[in-house]
Design goal:
There is one protein chain. The protein is about 85% helix and about 0% strand. By secondary structure, it is mainly alpha-helical. It has one domain. The longest helix has 28 residues. It starts with a helix and ends in a 7-residue tail after the last helix.
Amino acid sequence: MEYLHAFWTGGLICALVQILLEKTKLLPGRVMVILVCAGAVLGASGLYEPFVSFAGAGASVPLLGFGNTLWQGVKDAVAAEGLLGLFKGGFTASAAGICAALVFSYLASLVFEPKMKE
């Protein structure tokens, strides 16, 4: 049942984003920023943890999860280091994920032949 909740929740998030892209003039980059900010707001309001406990990877893998990771990092760093944590907490919390994305995308470009759009 856990897989089913993850599947339909992640699919619902993707469908809502697709509707947002189709029905508005928002560009994909702006929609991605909205998702990251929504994840941070849900984390700050305490709604994200119950959502993830219900939906699992369907809620934690999309950009909502990245926004929540940034929020948690900032919150923990501010509690530990004060105002300086406001500036470095998000970087510390998300560094491993960003590094993995860069390394794996580079490796994929070595395996496959990248092509420029014409």
